[in-house]
Amino acid sequence: MKLGVFAVLFSKMSLGEMLDYVKESGLDTVEIGTGGYVGNAHCNPKELLADSRKLEQFKQAFESKGIKISALSCHGNPLHPNTEIADEHHDVFVDTVKLASILGVESVVTFAGCPGESEYSQHPVWITNPWPEDFSNVVKWQWENKVIPYWKRQSELLEECNVRVAIEPHPGFVVYNTETALRLRNECGNRIGINFDPSHYFWQGMDPVVSIKALGDAIVHFHAKDTKVDNQNCLLNGVLDTKSYADISNRSWVFRTVGYGHGEDVWRDIISALQVIGYQGAISIEHEDGLMSVEEGFSKAVAFLKDMVIKEGAKELWWA
Helices 208-215 and 178-188, interaxial angle, to 10°? Predict the structure, then answer.
């Protein structure tokens, strides 16, 4: 495994400045945003696909620093009922897959998406309860009419380009937990992988270690981000919370830098579980901590994780 970072943290820096900063921090892998909700500050796939000179300059920027791209990420909602949004996010996904293929990047990170409740919807509808029966009918319609057909088509593209998608289970989208992640993979093929982010598992009450072992080799990329559950607010209102992330004192939970939601033992167990399933990819630091600046959160995450991450070729057993 290699410790890396999701480079959208440094969107205000140029590509060269970002790579220098990452290198100086002792990391040798980065995840690059290509559009969708995360933007494309360092990489515009359509532009690079259309201009071989710019593409070569982009490749050389990484090679000259000895930094590897762990994944291209275009988190979006290609199933959005607003066709303009859906088409935009789909087009970015397709261009990102094609660019990944050319660059030799194995995985593209995104969301599974979320449709509306019918062909007449204007906004996505995420269902969290089976009753009244309307809700169960909506979930059935979404999967059978939108989710499975779309991702079966994208699996053909992924196969053609020899790339895997790393779907990030995330509340608000149809894939949000272990069960729904495995369902999408089982329905649409092994080109459908998982980007595992423990922060979304923590607040939903799941155990990341148990989920990692259940997902096994479906995990093709990993985000290092934590969550702090506020016990008092949670006891009052439960974990479903639509208040602004900025309303930290009143929320049931907030995202934190690794180590500020759960301690070292928990994170060592998570890294160990990744070793158990044979994961050898990146541990990509993500920052959404409202109590720390990007620089502070990033540096503390690096310090917290650097001794936990086992690098490739460094886990020989004494009895082997």
Answer: 10
Superfamily (CATH H level) for 2-305: Divalent-metal-dependent TIM barrel enzymes (3.20.20.150)
Tens of pLDDT, residues 192-232: 999 999 999 999 999 999 999 999 999 999 999 999 999 99
Among 141, 49, 64, smallest CA distance to 96 is for 49
- Establish how many alpha carbons lie within 13 A of residue 92's alpha carbon, considering only the half-sphere containing its beta carbon: 26
Among 122, 128, 98, 124, smallest CA distance to 111 is for: 124
* DSSP E strand stretches across 225-281: 226-229, 253-256
pLDDT band at 84 (very low <50, low <70, confident <90, very high): very high
Q: Is-contact 156 177, C-beta < 8 A?
A: no
Judge residue 309's burial from the number of C-beta atoms within 10 Å of its C-beta, 0-12 exposed, 13-18 middle, 19 or more buried: middle
What is the value of pTM for the model shown?
Answer: 0.96
**pLDDT tens digits along 283-311:** 999 999 999 999 999 999 999 999 999 76
